[in-house]
Amino acid sequence: MHREFLMGNEAMALGALAAGVNVVAGYPGTPSTEVLETVARRRGEGVYVEWSVNEKAALEVAAGAAYAGARALVTMKQVGLNVASDPLMSLSYIGVKGGLVVLVADDPGPISSQTEQDTRTFAAYAKLPILDPSSPSEAYQMMGEAFALSEELGCPVIVRPTTRVDHGYEDVEVAEPEEWLVNEPEGFVRDPSRWVIFPALSVRAHAAIEARDAELSERLSGYARNTVRQTAGPDARPRLGIATHGISATYVAENLSEKDDVRVLRVATPYPFPEDLAADFLAGLDEVLCIEELDPVIERALIATCGRRSLTVKIRGKLTDDIQPSGENTVESVGRAIDAFLGRGAADESEAPGISPRAVPQPRSGEDCLSTGNCPAPPTLPVRPPVLCAGCPHRASFYAVKKAMRGRKTLFCGDIGCYTLGNAKPLDMVDTCLCMGAGINIAQGVTHVEPDTAAFAFVGDSTFFASGITGVVNAFYNQASMTLVVLDNSTTAMTGHQPHPGTGRTMMGQVVEKVSIERVLRAIGLTVVETVDPLDHERAVETVRRVADEPGVKAIIFRNPCVVLARPKARSAVDAEKCVGCQRCVRELGCPALVPDAATGKVRIDPAQCTGCTLCEQICPTHAISGGERL
Predict the structure, then answer these.
(1) Which residues of the chain form CATH 3.40.50.920?
(2) For 522-545, how does the pLDDT look when each residue is reduced to its tens digit (9 = 90+)?
(3) CATH code 3.40.50.970 region(s) in the chain
(4) Looking at the predicted structure, is the pLDDT value of residue 441 above 90?
(5) What region does 140 belong to: left with phi over 0, alpha with psi -120 to 50, or beta?
(6) Residues 419-437: b if buried by 16+ CB within 10 A, e if exposed
(7) What pLDDT shows up at residue 503?
(8) 577 three-class SS
């Protein structure tokens, strides 16, 4: 064993490797992405890893491996579980032979997601065990425990870290590679009565699952990570309790001291809920505050426990408006809730972590604020809205479509990815955005109601493979009228530049033949498929005008590499003598490298941001910008 300073995602990856994982599949999605990337970087011989085209495919690949006795891991974020829910629900019934761990990273906030979904609720819906780590080191240990539990029960086990565990760092004790468990899969054993899901099998399986989960609830009351502790010592007789989980348990610990007479329940297995342990925790208490993200899972479970066991304990939390109903918990928000619950008033405020209602005194001259504790409050940081990178080819693509369709009744359906940022002004080119791949189908629905609308559906190259192809098939088959715009920057940019079927690289390092988007579209039946460089502005505009007038389903592929991956050859600059201060480049493009000068009204270019894409050069009416050289 040795110690490493690890991100939570790295810790879980090493935990899976130490547990003898054989197959790892996933789809990139923040905050889960680094798990699979770490496995790929640090795996030993015999470990297969892939970025699948979407989460459903990833789970099915992992399930096949587990059918053959392998230990398999699948990674995704919470919205990815929606995509994988079809196989997951059936796997709950049909089961697995090898260990199958489904790592779902939840994103309270949300920080980088469409929704705040709580996978603890999904686990109860799917009737699958779920482990809820509170730190990177615990997440490392839970991976091995999850594989063992999956093999013992013959079902998938979910591990649910949240963003602050995924991206938090800790000094973690990890096994040496030579200490990693070696799992030798038996191989697939043909048995249709087990592996082919029929109604009769499902009826038997459902009854068995209910019995299993009831028994497992009793067992999990003794699981070492489900704990009850008292801050005032074992001989205290507290009347108040706090129930918590995950990263919130860390926040609770930071806000309690030994003088607080309170009992704390930490739930590491929200489903099946450890009811026996919860009943022991509730004994003798008058009130309990449930501190959790996002759904009131523990709160509802404790209310049910009180009802079944005739306990007269008042349960407080989200359902009683004592805890915020949505959003991410913080040390400060948890501290305020605990202060109110325990009645810690002004006398205690100076000792309550994260609570500073009074102005902080300034340090005297010559004093070190860190040593005195009298540090001034930090200044409020300015809000920086997300924006497309300087030189991003998506900006050029959106601008070409906007210019070509000016004056016409149009609909611009967006999708999930960097190009969602096309909604920001001055581009203002995203009218809808629901979930991955949905824009293609939404465009069809609108045009069936409004046939006179010129509908465009924007989708990235990675998203096209993940969930866009079926929408195009649906559009062609049902004779829709729309223009598909594939924004091909040759990577999965928003989640960290992972490969996909169109890049010609796999996560195993293999160089393979690229899957051609043009050929896929023509195989579906599209006859109008145009590929153009969006940074060739005039040609891009002309292509949009011509293709948009074609009947039926047609496609434009705007292809130019992500600017983060492509080094600029030269940067643009403004000739102040030629610049007339019209600021057309700023008003129409919104590129962060274009900086208006308040004193002169003219524009300058920030050389630290400019990539020399030449888009601003091409639209400047006085030709005052030059020097760039696009790739």
Answers:
(1) 227-349
(2) 999 999 999 999 999 999 999 999
(3) 2-220, 393-559
(4) no
(5) alpha
(6) bbbbbeeebebbbbbeebb
(7) 86
(8) coil
Site of tokens 């057309």: 584
Place of tokens 């009802």: 307
| Nearest alpha-carbon partner for 144 in 17, 48, 10 | 17
pTM of the model: 0.80
Residue 397: its pLDDT value, please? 96
The yes/no answer on whether domain 227-349 falls in CATH 3.40.50.920 is yes
Q: Which CATH number fits domain 2-220: 3.50.50.60, 3.40.50.1950, 3.40.50.970, 3.40.50.1000?
A: 3.40.50.970
What is the maximal distance between C-alpha atoms in the chain?
Answer: 84
Question: How far are the Cα atoms of 132, 162, 210 from residue 394, in angstroms, in the given order?
Answer: 38, 31, 50
- Any alpha helices (H) in 118-222, and if so which ranges? 119-126, 136-153, 163-166, 192-195, 199-220
Tens digit of each residue's pLDDT (9 = 90 or more) over 155-175: 999 999 999 999 999 999 999
pLDDT given for residue 367 in this prediction: 53
Class of 573-626 in CATH: alpha beta
Q: What is the pLDDT of residue 374?
A: 65
- The answer, yes or no, to whether residue 370 has pLDDT greater than 60, is no
User: What is the token pair recorded at 416?
Assistant: 């999930």
Quick one: pLDDT at residue 631? Answer: 65
Instruction: Identify residue 52 by its one-letter amino acid code.
Output: S
Residue that has been written with the tokens 């603890």 in this structure: 120
Decide which of 3.10.290.10, 3.40.50.300, 3.20.20.105, 3.40.50.970 is the CATH code for 393-559: 3.40.50.970
Give the tokens for residue 95. Answer: 């089961």
Owner of token pair 């013992």: 152
Structure-token pair, residue 228: 């009850």
Three-state DSSP class for residue 68: coil
pLDDT (average), residues 422-439: 85
